[in-house]
Amino acid sequence: MTPKPNEPVLLGRLEPVGGGDPIPLVKPKLLVGRHPSCDICLPFKNVSARHCELIYEQGYWTVRDLNSTNGTKVNGQRVREQRVYPGDELSIAKHRYRLFYAPSPVTGHDADTHSIYEDITRESLMQRAGLIKIDPNRLAKPSPRRRPVRLTPPPPSDEPYGPDETPPLPGAPPGPVSDEELLRLIQDETEQGRKED
Length: 197
What we know:
Elements: E1 13-16, E2 23-24, E3 29-33, E4 40-41, E5 52-57, E6 60-65, E7 72-74, E8 77-78, E9 81-84, E10 89-92, E11 95-100, H1 109-122, H2 125-128, H3 179-196
């Protein structure tokens, strides 16, 4: 069915979960929020004035949160930016919608490859299978790579040691060593190795 000249092209619809009027998606970029100037105005107190954007690119819809107070979720997972597939549930604050549209993938090998790569690397297989949930706001930054610590062997000694005995560490007091003393000696040795690097 061909749209009339002044009739907007329908790129999909948001259907409220639990019933209500569907919201047509008529532009490739839609601002969603509480403010009346938004393309999709949701006049609820818990929706931010400029809550999120819906962007239609490469034949798929993507949602981008605009630092909203109550967040944006896709299938129950809070997101900053994520592709939304047909039938996925989109939550804007506490208001849930199901997104319906017919994807139209971009033709061209590079676009398809890039899109597939993006989808595969966005989440781990465990996340995609729903076995683990990771809050993207609490991801730890990788710690800087530490240099290996060089431990120096004890100096050769003239004292004979039996098969079940170990020689004392350098600087260790003679006789049995407690766990606390052993830990302190290892830490001292580690610090000395760092200073030498």
